[in-house]
Automatic annotation (TrEMBL):
One GO cellular component, as annotated: membrane
Pfam families in the cross-refs: Polysacc_deac_1 (PF01522)
PANTHER family documented for this protein: CHITIN DEACETYLASE 1-RELATED (PTHR10587:SF133), GLYCOSYL TRANSFERASE-RELATED (PTHR10587)
Domain NodB homology: 251-430
First and last residue of the signal peptide: none
GO BP terms, alphabetized: carbohydrate metabolic process
Alphabetically ordered keywords of this record: Hydrolase, Membrane, Metal-binding, Transmembrane, Transmembrane helix
UniProt-recorded name of the protein: Polysaccharide deacetylase
InterPro entries given in the database record: Glyco_hydro/deAcase_b/a-brl (IPR011330), NODB_dom (IPR002509), Polysacc_deacetylase_ArnD (IPR050248)
Protein species of origin: Bifidobacterium anseris
Length: 449
């Protein structure tokens, strides 16, 4: 046997074995659960004249569920594309006609209000102005932009750049409002003012103490202007009023004596006690300390004791500090001499003006002048002193005499006749405090001690 024949027989035997093994394997798998013949039929024939051919894949078709899903997806895509196209047309592509204050203006739907205004130069309306705190124009275009209402609804200026005209049918454009510049704020103390009237009578009274106020002040950041925005606490004026009390239905007169006490004071006190008359003594502090028993007698017998300073200076020439010291020391001397606490003053020479009140209103309640000056310091004689009082007497009069500061014998001589003759005319005698109370003079507004 030739070598070729042997090789061919060997090849055929090997193919037979392979074919049988494939069939057995397929039978063991039972691919579709059918009988063996059908399973074998599903396998491609093996061409033993050549190589083995691969099995043919079975043709698969889409199931009904998958087909339905695909159909729905396609439908959704179509609807989405249609909606998107409609939305783009509705809010972007289409042209919108807007009635702007009676004029029809067209623009794309996606045009913002800011662009719409810019394209039409704000429709001839002007922006507001930027004003200073006092109303000065700082920037003619620095205020609010023009105001816009769409379909009757006001659109905030902050939304002009994002709000479109897509739904606009009508639009109203009005000029912008003026704006006041930004500012800083400070709280400041305001000094109190004064209302001092010394021309209405001899009794000057502090009716209101001065009090500083508090204000909120605005300072313009650009202009630097300042205005008072608010009164946090109004300032109160120092108020001094003058009075000439004339008690209704009465006939009273006040006798007053200055510059004591002295050796002349005791005879005067004797006469007053004998005549049952009360008077007011404006005493010097240094004299009160020199004659404390007379001071004490005055108080004990019902007379009013008040201050005439310490040493009789001319007060308008004094500094504020010296003036206050003089007055406070005078009050303290009376307190030491007779335990009298007073804030009533008669300034030496009657010299106590507006500035003195400004300097001392917190320590002085009242300054008492006079309406009858006997000029007894000139020593004109007891008759002249007597007559000066009698011819000038009236209801509420205040007569000035002296019990110190010189020779006062003429006052002692004149005093009994003055009292007797005034009584004959129906007068009664009162102290300054009593005259003020009868005449309705306001109580002093005392400062803080």
């Amino acid at each position: 046997m030739s070598q070729n024949k042997r090789n061919r027989d060997k090849y055929i035997d090997e193919n037979d074995v392979a074919e049988n093994e494939v069939v057995e394997d397929l039978q063991s798998l039972d691919i579709d659960g059918g009988d063996e013949e059908e399973d074998v039929a599903a396998v491609e024939e093996i061409d033993f004249q050549g190589s083995a051919k691969p099995p043919k894949r079975p043709h698969r078709t889409m199931g009904p569920v998958a087909a339905a899903v695909v159909t729905v997806l396609v439908a959704l895509i179509v609807v989405a594309l249609g909606a998107g196209a409609w939305w783009m047309w509705r809010f972007h592509w289409r042209s919108v006609d807007v009635n702007v204050d009676g004029e029809t203006v067209s623009a794309r739907a996606d045009t913002t209000i800011a662009r719409f205004l810019d394209d039409h130069d704000d429709f001839g309306r002007t922006r507001g102005r930027l004003l200073s705190l006092k109303g000065k124009v700082l920037d003619k275009d620095g205020g609010d932009p023009v105001a816009v209402s769409v379909n009757g609804t006001t659109v905030p200026a902050a939304d002009y750049g994002t709000t479109t005209i897509a739904d606009a049918e009508t639009m109203t454009v009005t000029p912008g409002k003026d704006v006041t510049e930004a500012h800083t704020s400070e709280q400041r103390t305001t000094k109190y003012g004064t209302d001092i009237n010394l021309n209405n009578g001899p009794i000057q009274v502090v009716t209101q103490q001065g009090e500083d106020g508090e204000q909120e002040v605005w300072i313009g950041k650009r202009s630097k202007e300042e205005i008072v925005h608010k009164e946090i606490k109004p300032a109160k004026k120092l108020t001094v009023q003058s009075f000439a009390p004339q008690p209704a239905g009465k006939k009273v007169i006040a006798l007053t004596f200055d510059d004591g006490p002295s050796q002349y004071t005791e005879p005067i006190l004797d006469i007053l006690r004998q005549k049952k008359v009360k008077a007011t003594f404006f005493d010097l502090g240094e004299e009160a300390l020199a004659y404390p028993k007379l001071e004490q007698r005055m108080v004990k017998e019902g007379h009013q004791v008040a201050s005439h300073s310490v040493s009789h200076p001319y007060m308008p020439d004094m500094s504020r500090d010296d003036l206050r010291k003089e007055i406070l020391t005078g009050f303290a001397d009376l307190k030491e001499a007779s335990d009298t606490k007073t804030r009533v003053l008669r300034a030496p020479y009657g010299a106590f003006g507006v500035q003195q009140w400004k300097d001392t209103a917190d320590i002085v309640d009242m300054n008492v002048l006079w309406s009858i000056d006997t000029l007894d310091w000139k020593r004109p004689g007891k008759k002249a002193i007597h007559d000066e009082v009698l011819k000038n007497a009236y209801n509420g009069a205040i007569a000035l005499m002296h019990d110190g500061g010189g020779d006062r014998t003429q006052d002692i001589e004149a005093l009994p006749g003055i009292i007797d003759d005034l009584k004959k005319q129906g007068y009664s005698f009162v102290t300054i405090d009593e005259l003020c109370e009868m005449g309705g003079v306001p109580k002093p507004a005392q400062g803080k001690d």
